[in-house]
Amino acid sequence: MRATARLLQSCRITFFTRKTCGLCTQARSVLSDVWDQRPFAFKEVDIVDPKSKPWLDLYDFDVPVIHISKSEAPEEDPKLSSQAVKLMHRFTVDQVKAKMDLVEKS
């Protein structure tokens, strides 16, 4: 059972968002549809939160942004964001699943 649960959540998606973001609402819906088909570990980062300032500096005009990584990977680091597997702005269920496939194979 434990191995199955780990397999089901072999990816982590970090969702960079802000409260006043219409595209973020759409992105959240896409992520919910992905979750229904393929569960993943999830972390949400409100870039406007003062402790998320490095993310605000990076993604102020780009949210929504998702980083897809292996679930056991270290927490996201703004200094390494250029290396992240990511999608920005508008994305589909199929695009998210394709990035998850890429991460799982790496």
UniProtKB/TrEMBL annotation:
Alphabetized UniProt keyword annotations: Electron transport, Transport
Pfam families registered for this protein in UniProt: Glrx-like (PF05768)
UniProt entry tagged with the keyword Lipid metabolism: no
InterPro entries per UniProt:
Glutaredoxin-like, Glutaredoxin-like_YDR286C, Thioredoxin-like_sf
What PANTHER family has UniProt attached to this entry?
A: GLUTAREDOXIN-LIKE PROTEIN C5ORF63 HOMOLOG
Q: Which family does it belong to?
A: Belongs to the glutaredoxin family.
Q: What is this protein called?
A: Glutaredoxin-like protein
Q: Write down the species.
A: Podospora pseudocomata
